User: Which sequence fits this backbone?
């Protein structure tokens, strides 16, 4: 194995580990902020690091189109390009090519599509995806796969998963192993436990540095997501990290850590920061709400982030109403700090065998969540 | 006088001083970044301070409409609201009410107008402007005046200036003096030396903590601006600070310091930072220009700012092409650092009697300026 993973302790199914890479060690469970176009939006890398983040996710689809993988390679790789010396995981482009690109056509070879930026024509295959991820100098690369749409019949989900498994083998063959770098496989199979089992076995037979669970949080709802996770997680090797892709809300992270997941990524904290949404220990707030206009108190009195230490809710309300960039900067810092502190609390709880107590306390707090979320799309 | 001003030394007509206020001391000549809506756009206050800025300008017109002066007062004043403990100068609202507000009507009493934000009706008078500036807790308040439009006939300029002088008296009467706080008068009179003299004499008779030169950089061109400055500056008391409002380009700052001006403000460095323009020691650059796409070098190798220390021109090009907020953040930091370093160089040159040499060196560099500026409006 080219990535070191130490499983330090367990508490129930929750796992506390550390993942050693060429670019540094990551304490797990971990949350990866999303830096789509080689920047975590509205944050400097120093700001991101200060939230507690140890690894970022960047998007192959966006970077292959702009600025281009060959260009990033010539400029010394993604770490140097974006001034983030720590680990970077890149996705394979498979998900976004199907959700963002135009005129896409999928066959056994791969996906042809036109760029959503300039209409230029591209072909993405397992081999090309891995080559791009090498050019970007990704610490952790992902297999090229098809994220099975939801809903899908079992037949559709099976055909899609089996294509992804053939692509997983081609991805592995194209991957050039190096010490401290790794390649993760992605379990597909929709919400069908039998297909998930077939997929997990196929990936394990190929052999990967870590195993991701894909195709969830795509509309199936929390209950089906968690039951699919319950069915999938026991199939994965205990000595390798597990990564639940694109998840999620704070309550999803907690529920998935409780089910043995080690790694997460999601745009929710950063995107919410740019739309005036703030995650706090006493609920999720919409800062555009007029009730904050005269509030001299901090966003979250128990938070250590700059937005909470130095500014009032009234000021944050003003910034979001005036569409000031500083509003996005401060709320993104806050949300990522909230996410990182949540992960740190879970790591500490697992280490000390108190995860069940943490879970009970979180669920009690969590009933207060989403108080103002319903207003977010209207303002 | 409620503001302390020490004129430390002169070099030719250039002056080196320090202005002591309730919120800290400002070394002059100084450049004030503009924080229109109680935020210097795309910057935290710590970022602004790190550029070397000692005093900010905020806009009365914007703040009276949103979040409202009474609200800011209840929240502890502008310094606390925006987390900038240093000095703040507020303009009077007179300039912006005429350039931004709708359905404005000017008479002897003041200006009635409708808000450009929500159409609400307002009356701004000298008394109300000063009251608002007190509510904001402005370290330095400005007299309410009419910025004479350009072009204007001598008769129009005279009538406008005389109205501003009557308003200056009403502003002074409405101002409640406090130690470390001050009120500046504003010399008007267009490009007519006789009117400028009449205006300066009227203001000196009333008596102010500092004297601003208004109504310049409104379309008259550099030559007329500098000749009007040449005619106006000798009329002003040597023992009080002089502030050239809304100016300007780096070359304007240098030419005005050479003519005895102590204080400046302008949106140029911050606005340019949001439109991919960068001021450097080797010219003004448009970062969207394709020639930067593969350039691994820094924006300005002689600059100390984070954008120059940690990023390539290629990365800044990428951020600006992708409309990433980090592009605005980094280029604004750079431009404000450039402006502050320029002021620091001028202060050092005056202190050591080398201002003429500085001026000659700057003018030599300056011929390289504006290389890519012409492309800025097209991209």
Assistant:
């Amino acid at each position: 194995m080219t990535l070191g993973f130490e499983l330090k302790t367990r508490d129930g199914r929750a796992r506390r580990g550390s993942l050693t890479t060429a670019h540094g060690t990551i304490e797990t469970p971990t949350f990866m902020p999303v830096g789509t176009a080689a920047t975590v939006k509205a944050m400097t890398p120093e700001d991101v690091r200060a939230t507690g983040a140890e690894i970022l996710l960047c998007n192959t689809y966006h970077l292959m189109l702009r600025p281009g993988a060959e260009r990033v390679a010539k400029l010394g790789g993604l770490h140097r390009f974006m001034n983030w010396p720590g680990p970077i995981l890149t996705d394979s482009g498979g998900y976004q090519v199907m959700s963002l690109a135009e005129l896409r056509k999928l066959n056994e070879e791969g996906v042809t599509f036109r760029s959503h930026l300039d209409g230029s024509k591209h072909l993405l295959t397992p081999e090309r995806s891995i080559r791009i991820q090498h050019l970007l100098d990704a610490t952790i690369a992902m297999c090229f796969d098809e994220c099975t749409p939801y809903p899908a019949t079992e037949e559709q989900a099976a055909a899609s998963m089996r294509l992804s498994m053939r692509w997983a083998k081609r991805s592995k063959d194209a991957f050039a192993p190096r010490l401290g770098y790794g390649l993760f496989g992605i379990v597909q199979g929709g919400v069908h436990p039998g297909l998930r089992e077939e997929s997990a076995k196929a990936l394990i037979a190929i052999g990967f540095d870590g195993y991701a669970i894909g195709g969830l949080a795509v509309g199936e709802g929390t209950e089906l997501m968690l039951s699919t996770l319950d069915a999938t997680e026991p199939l994965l090797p205990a000595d390798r990290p597990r990564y639940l892709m694109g998840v999620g809300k704070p309550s999803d992270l907690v529920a998935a850590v409780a089910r043995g997941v080690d790694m997460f990524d999601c745009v929710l904290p950063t995107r919410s920061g740019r739309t005036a949404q703030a995650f706090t220990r006493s609920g999720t707030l919409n800062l555009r709400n007029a009730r904050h206009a005269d509030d001299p108190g901090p966003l979250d009195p128990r938070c250590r982030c700059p937005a909470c230490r130095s500014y009032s809710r009234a000021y944050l309300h003003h910034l979001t109403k005036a569409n000031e960039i500083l509003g996005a900067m401060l709320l993104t810092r806050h949300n990522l700090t909230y996410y990182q502190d949540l992960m740190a609390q879970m790591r500490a709880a697992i280490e000390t065998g108190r995860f069940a107590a943490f879970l009970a306390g979180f669920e009690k707090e969590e009933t207060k969540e989403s108080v103002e979320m319903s207003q977010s799309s209207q303002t």
